[in-house]
Amino acid sequence: MVERGKREIGLLVCSVFIAGILSPSLIPPYVSQEASAATKPNDFLTYYSSTYEIKIKYPAEWQTIEPEDEYVKVVFLSPLEDPSDSYNELVMILTEDLPFKMKLTDYTEVAIRQIRVLYPDMQILTSGPAKLAGNPAHKIVFAATIEGYEDISVKGMMIWTIKDKKAYIVGFFAEVETYAAYLQTAQTMVDSFEIIG
Question: Within 13 Å, how many C-alpha atoms sit on residue 87's CB side?
Fold first, then answer.
């Protein structure tokens, strides 16, 4: 009975976190700027937060937003490609204080289940072990439709790890058509992610 209660708390926590990831209110269209999808490594700046104990490199021309959100700590938005572009590709970092010590496999199971509940048309393209900030992690790549935001079809990559009783999540989202063009930049960001402390 205690184990069932723990799992339900985990489900609730994860559903709130997943809803925050793809919420249209966190993915607004911003002022258009011409930009190329590929970014050279020396065109990166460093974002550091002593409050959240995280550090990551991001493209100099991308916009940084720190929403007032319990889970989403920072969002990096690509410039719009042209006047007809209505979606900023993005990388976001989330942290989640867990109510109890959780195994990565349990967290992964709950997170994937909640993504499926929130986005019934989601198709998982890949799912498996990874590394994030030098820690064992899980990575999924999936496609889904963001309803209510011009019903845009997106492809997402999410990587999460657990350190102590905290989950760290890095997510990359792009329109299906532009995902491949931005993947190298997003992967550079993911590879640079550090947990400080």
Answer: 23
d(CA 79, CA 82): 9
How far is it, in rounded angstroms, from Cα 20 to Cα 187? 22
Give CA–CA dist 193/56, Å, rounded: 4
DSSP assignment string, 119-160: -TT-EEEEEEEEEETTEEEEEEEEEEEETTSTTEEEEEEEEE
> Span 12-22, mean pLDDT?
43
Nearest to 88 by CA among 64, 71, 69, 72: 64
What does CATH list as the number for 2-195?
3.40.1000.10
63-120: per-residue pLDDT in tens? 999 998 888 999 999 988 777 776 789 999 999 999 999 999 999 999 898 888 877 8
Decide: 96 and 13 in contact? Cβ < 8 Å: yes
Task: Kindly tell me the number of DSSP H helices and DSSP E strands found in the chain.
Answer: 3, 10
Query: What does the DSSP 8-state code read for residue 78?
Result: P
Residue 22 has pLDDT above 60, yes or no: no
Nearest Cα to 189, choosing from 58, 37, 61?
Answer: 58
Phi and psi of 153, rounded to 5°?
-90, 120
Cα end-to-end span (Å), the chain: 35
- Contact yes or no for 186/91 (Cβ under 8 A): yes
